[in-house]
Design goal:
By secondary structure, this protein is of the alpha+beta class. Helix content is 50%, strand content 17%. It has 24 helices and 22 strands. Strands 1, 2, 3, 4, 5, 6, 7, 8, 9, 10 and 11 form an 11-stranded mixed beta sheet that branches.
Amino acid sequence: MTSDLKFALRTLRKNPAVTVVAVLTLALGIGVNATMYSCLNALLLRPFPYREPDRLVALRDDNPTKGINGAWVSYPNFAEWRASSRSLIGLMAFAGNSFNLAAKDGVPEQVDGAQITWDTFQLLGVQPVLGRNFRIEEDRPGAERVAMLAYELWQRRFDGDRGVLGKTISLSGDAYTVVGVMPPDFGFPNRSALWVPLALDPVQDRGSHSLNAYARLKPGVTIEQAHADLASISRRLAADFPESNAGWTLSMVTLHEQSGGGDYRSVLYIMMGAVAFVLLIACANVANLLLARATTRSREMAIRAALGAGRGRIIRQLLVESLMIAMLGGAIGALFAVGFLKLVVAGTPSDRPFWMVFAIDRDTLLYTLALCLTTGILFGLAPAIQASSGALHESLKEGGRSGGSGAGRQRLRNGLVIVEVALSLVLLVGAGLMVQSFLKIQDVDPGFDRSNVLTMRVSLAGKQYDSVSARAGFYKQVLARTSALPGVQQAAMINNAPLSGSTNSSDFEIDGHPFPVGRSPTAAVRSVSASYLQALRIPLRKGRLFAEHEAWDSSRVTVINETMASRFWPGADPIGRRIAFNGDTSANKWYTIIGVVGDVHVRRLTSPPDNDWYLPYSAMPRRTMTILVKTAADPAALTAAVRDAVRAVDANMPVFSVRTMQATYESSMWDRRLYGWMFAAFGSIALVLAAVGLYSVIAYMVAQRTREIGVRMALGARRVDVVRLVLNRGLVLTGAGLVIGGIAAFAVMRTLKGLLFGVSSAEPLTFIGVAALLGTVAIVASVVPARRASAVDPAIALRNE
């Protein structure tokens, strides 16, 4: 083997051009495969950083009647499950929250955190590196306030001081005692910087689905058995509390499914299939190169055989050379993968969960090594078998007579080119459909004017904002100060900005139109200032908008969107009709509809509009609101001024999530943009490789048929005849690849249906356009060899051998 390795290295050094092309071709194929495997590993394969994560499950509430899947759970129901379950070691509940952390330098900071049940970290199997976990008595209403810090926050804000235990910190105006510090790079559930006990009262609104819940299965208990156990409890609760629980069912899923793994899975598998196509094209290219080189080494192989080398010995020698090329390609491909992965990560949101780590780690390197070994054998086996065939002396006869490479070998090379063209067509059709889909999404009217709008979040913390009047007074002053800033056209606010992905939904009832128990419709409730609809230029379709005073007093008026109006008052005028929150028993519960406005995409551009129910801020005085500032010029330039306006009202109030509405709009499409970009990259690589493969086959054919071409020209063939001969060969190979690829693409594109928007997976223009592109590339790739063939001097050609 040592001798084989040394000889392989000398052989590769003797043919630097072939070696470089082969290595770089494989590096591209292996690089994109390693990149996609790293993504697959980060999202689906790498286990969660908890103890026995496969024994952890997520609990979700579904309501098929209302079309709700995967909703959070209510705390009273959770308490019943925890008390009555026989199949679980324990259940934990948690809710994301943000806290205003008083800074040591006087500048407040908003940090993301979570409220958790006392035993959450014990059930996860993660222990603090400093201090202790929460205790059961601390997870009760009215208990002493305690907190645990993330390692990174402890280092950054408290200089890693071990004396932080027992110290008091101010969170949202309340004093908390620090009792523990969690390990580095731990941010459960996503990127929490601190944790406090949930401390909820089980006797609360059972219809409020506001918590995430996980459970740990007992040893030997399957997820199906645990689901049956909790489902029986849920059925009992539905019978006991029909007003809140009727129509709701419990579902139980793995943590990867809960975190979006179900959505990622199909995309990742499609992408893995795409990069596998790229690698196959690269292997076909390298196999063609080795087949061409094998022709020039026929005499060498014949001499080896004559000296007693068996076929297996010759195949081993050639496979060692192939594996060396593959290993070199893998090494460079791993470097490519580092760069490719940086581009992929740059196209994803920065607020990824703490456990979602994209890296070229040990698992990815082992996968790359396995890929190198597999591809080395894959592209090297056919040339090795051809070169070591028992008819080597016949090949020499063929070569001596015509300079050909043998009919069998030529058929194999042609077949590889056809495969390259077919795979390239599949990838390019996929890229075309994904790019068209992204462009279609960009054509969707979001329903509002996103230009020159700055947004930022404010969360009113502390007892001084417990009253509605205090909260309304704060926001009223902030809007007044912001509106007075130079360059500001309008200032407004809403609880959740459009395309932010967040929404607050509630069941409602219609005056004079009762709904069956458990079948009340749902609407997304928007708490807004009077200026909000005008600031975002949301069109008024009917009636009027809010008056300024109605945002701050107790006016019982509301505005709805077109979707809600058409669903519940089809063909009728909803102005003057009354709606109320379902279950509200107060005498003054009804809100009178005064206007109908255009639909706005709040969640995603690809999601249909919700039933939007706009309420004046006084009707739903949220602590956390989004401030929007419509400006005459660049809105980002006013960030500091708006921040100062907020601090002028309350110096201890931080602002966070500062971004322009344009940035929010672009962020809402990050996944479709990334998919389109990646497919386009894969398709482009495939196109280049296919062009190189086609060029190499045609150029090699011309070189091998130089004498024949000379004879043809000596007998009167014109240059145009020779060009036509060569071009026909390229077009025949391309045509065969297009036919096979078209059939394959039609079948494969069905898997993209879930990723496409506004585009059919069988879009004929895309298929035709890609076929035309590949045909053009084939002509271009054949032109240079064709021109070279037509320039052959018959006299020189006839003396060639």
